[in-house]
Design a protein that fits this description.
With about 190 residues, the chain is mostly beta strands. The protein is built from one helix and eleven strands. Strand 4 and strand 5 form a beta hairpin. About 15% of the residues have low confidence.
Amino acid sequence: MTVRRRPTVGSLAALAAALVLGVAAALILASGPAGADHGGAPSGDGIAPDFVAGNPSCVGLGYDFGFKPQPEPPPNGVYPFPGDPANTVTISNNNGTTFDWLSTLGVDAVIVKGGPNANLYVYDPPAEDFGDTGLHSPVNHNNNQPFGISHIEFCYDYEVDVEKTAETTFTRTWTWTIDKTADTAGPLNLSP
């Protein structure tokens, strides 16, 4: 024989509390386990980093080219773009978790890898950038500090600028000449 009991107000309240705690726990787990990393504060130019799980690359994210200064992580210094030594990127104020950069070539985005994931700073759109300050890797919530930088990758492309400056001219040169001759030995006939 089965005995059924009606829920009491106390048991309904306990069930509601368990549901609320379950939903809160699910939200915490969805945002990552304890110690999970997340984007963090914006850069000096106000670019909020996009948290990207794993080990992204510029080409993998759809950019034309990616450049990782070597060694990894790169110390402060000037680094030429691959195959284009006329263009460089300068990394400064690198303390292992944050850095500044300047470039002679417009940069579309910067990936800052640290810990198990990365931050993506997107400049284009609206426009490429030539420098920024205070970029950092994702935040480790165990200590609320950015993870140590493992590598930096600059995403870029080459813009094609076309300008018409031609002024059309044309000179025709002939290599032949006209000679004039007359027969003066014969009679001269002047008819009316």
